[in-house]
Amino acid sequence: SNFLLNNFITEFDEKYNVIRNIQSEKIDIKDKEWLIFNAKIYKKNNYEFKEKLNFKSNFNLENIQNLFSNLSSLNLYELYKLRKNYKQLNYSITDIDIQLLKIVSYPLYLFLITLFSSLIMLNIKEIKGTIFKISIFLFFSVIIYYLNNFFNVLGSTEKISVQLAVFIPLIILSFVNFLMLNKINEK
């Protein structure tokens, strides 16, 4: 629902000095003006108790839910909005940047996969067994999936740059396609 339970909020000034701490069992976050119930407010070494407290925030329920959503289900606009929110919270935006690049490069990926599957079909047309052909396609599908996933993890952990994480699998697929085209051209 619209509530955060068992909370502890620390409020800072511009220089990151603690202004106050607020402890509460329940906060209504439906709007950007939160309603805090049974707030225990700590200032310096003293505290006071308020039954209801209004607290202005930059976030509401929708913003907080979007922070923890599945990136692959978001469109470009939502990703840019989420990227802005992550920057406000000083979160890492690497995963969002990877997802943005994947969306932009997706048409190229589809083209390369289509070309790859066509080239495989042209190269194995003399093989009669349907089960063997399906096995070959499944094998290559798994290889491509894990190759993409491997470089995605390297990019997410910042072992390689975001651009390399997205484009190295595409470059490898392009190179394999080129080799297979050469083989067909020699025939």
Short description:
The protein is an alpha+beta fold and 187 residues long.
Can you tell me about this structure?
This protein has helices spanning 61-67, 76-89, 94-123, 130-156, 162-186, and strands spanning 3-12, 18-28, 33-43, 46-56. 55% of the residues lie in helices and 23% in strands. The chain has 187 residues and is α+β, with helices and mostly antiparallel strands. The chain is elongated and about 85 Å long. Helix 2 (76-89) packs antiparallel against helix 3 (94-123), helix 3 (94-123) runs parallel beside helix 5 (162-186) and helix 4 packs antiparallel against helix 5. The model has no long low-confidence stretch (mean pLDDT 86). The longest helix is centred in the middle third of the chain and has 30 residues, at 94-123.
